[in-house]
Automatic annotation (TrEMBL):
Keywords: ATP-binding, Cell inner membrane, Cell membrane, Membrane, Nucleotide-binding, Sugar transport, Transport. GO terms for cellular component: ATP-binding cassette (ABC) transporter complex, substrate-binding subunit-containing; maltose transport complex. Residues 4-234 form the ABC transporter domain. This is Multiple sugar transport system ATP-binding protein.
Length: 238
């Protein structure tokens, strides 16, 4: 299980404060979507949760333990990026198993985990292929597969579907929702796309200028937006 708490988290790059003291509670197995316009701080917030970016001040807690000084590999989470850089010379199977190989997991165990993830993602027939022989959607599934094999309790997604065409995006949204059910994991999903937020989230976090404007269910935000920005962004009639 995994809960996550942010307490007065601040991020400064030089003199610029891009995250302005964010407080947030995420429950075990929640599907939380960070949404907001480009440059509002979504990726920075996610990268601090992942441990890829330091916190200027404030605390990040996973399962009530302070993570500020814990390295990314020790946080029990896995991140899927928009630019899913697969290793071009490796097969799908080797791409998916690579982090396990780095961690010294024996071949038989590695292979079993990769096959299990491949089965969840319907990638089994493609395990021997190289990335260049895959479609965009298949590549994105391999990138998700790389995260699944590590058995993380928290998945972090940074605009994972933005390189895909519209119909594939719809299909991948459905697959991610199914994955969330199947894996019983906590998921944090970053997007600038209101429709993705409204259709996928248990809880939406609306960001603007490094500040949380509102946190709530899609229905709460739609029917009770706290201000014009949220209303405009969510597309509510208010
Ligand atoms: P989003 O993901 O919502 O588009 P980002 O988190 O990438 O926003 O960026 C938030 C703000 O922080 C932007 O103004 C961006 O220019 C700035 N920023 C992000 N990363 C860095 C960095 N490494 N150095 C300086 N400024 C950065
Ligand atoms: Mg971003």
């Amino acid at each position: 299980m995994a809960t996550l708490q942010l307490k007065q988290v601040v991020k400064e790059f030089g003199d610029t404060r891009v995250i302005q003291g964010v407080d947030l509670d995420i429950e075990d197995r929640e599907f939380v979507v960070f949404v907001g316009p480009s440059g509002c701080g979504k990726s920075t917030l996610l990268r601090m949760i992942a441990g890829l970016e330091s916190v200027s001040s404030g605390d990040i807690l996973i399962n009530d333990q302070r993570m500020n000084d814990v390295g990314p590999a020790e946080r029990g989470l896995a991140m899927v990026f928009q630019s899913y850089a697969l290793y071009p010379h490796m097969t799908v199977e080797d791409n998916m198993g690579f982090s396990l190989r780095l961690a010294g997991v024996p071949k038989a165990e590695r292979s079993a985990k990769v096959r299990e993830a491949a089965s969840i993602l319907q990638l089994e027939p493609l395990l021997d292929r190289k990335p260049k022989a895959l479609s965009g959607g298949q590549r994105q599934r391999v990138a998700i597969g790389r995260a699944i094999v590590r058995n993380p309790s928290i998945f972090l997604f940074d605009e994972p579907l933005s390189n895909l065409d519209a119909s594939l995006r719809v299909q991948m949204r459905i697959e991610l929702a199914r994955l969330h059910d199947e894996l019983d994991a906590t998921m944090i999903y970053v997007t600038h796309d209101q429709i993705e937020a409204m259709t996928m989230a248990d809880k939406i976090v609306v960001l603007q200028g490094g500040v949380i404007e509102q946190v709530g269910s899609p229905m709460t935000l739609y029917h009770h937006p706290r201000n014009r920005f949220v209303a405009g962004f969510i597309g509510s009639p208010k």
